[in-house]
Amino acid sequence: MSPLPADLVRARNAADARDIAAAAAELVACGSLEMGADAPEDAQRIASLLPAGTPVYVNHLPRRELAHTLPALVALSEAGLEPVPHVAARRIASRAEAESFLRQAVRLASVRKVLLIGGDVLDPLGPYADAAAFMRDALLPQCGVEQVGLASYPEGHPRVASVRLAAALADKLALTRAQGLGVHIVTQFSFAPNRIVEHCADLARRAPDVPLYVGLPGPTSPRTLWRYAQRCGVSASLRALQAQGMGAVRLFTHVDPTDQLTALARHVHAGSANNVVGVHLYSFGGVATTAHWMNARITARA
Q: What's the whole-model pTM score?
């Protein structure tokens, strides 16, 4: 078979590049991001940059009660964005605290979704040893929550074996079905594209009907990213940063997730990550910078 003419190859490559760019923009437009609970005023700022109804997750910080997130959730709702609180099971002191918070979040901020995580404290502060234990209490549907986000880890968890993670996810998915809850999965961020794609494929086999949001680090400094990667146990990401070098000048440049987004979009376009519906941006305290980055990718498709 004779090779294709060079101009036809160039045209096909250009068309593929346009399709991948469009897929990348769609992943961001259908995506979400995180913000801290301490700055409710950020809600109006990011609302001017993002599509109406964009899910914005509010962190449940260590040594803070769930109710601390309420002002930020209300501000997001009033700004036309979708507030999604983190609920860290091991940091909840009592069932009463959880119930009071969920009922207020639904009533005051129109919360319909939560992201349920185990929480990174060694000893539970209250009755919930993990996210599944919290779900078994059935507070989410009782309080009016309609959908739960579950965490997943492309590089594994620093303190939980992979076999236990897989079993726990299956348990939680069964609980969502039994309680009539919608469900989606949000992954931890990673700098190992192969692991991300393999992880997406594995989740597609185990939970083919569950929407998946792939975590990406928002634009930040290598120093900040290094700190969060250490905290989250993202070993491959740490090795990638080490390979780049951590010289004094690079410490003050910014890490941009565009290359990771493009790599993911390429796999989505090729059909090898068809359970992925969007990306989830970890803002590391820089939510306005992350929202500007998202806006630039979304508007580029116009």
A: 0.87
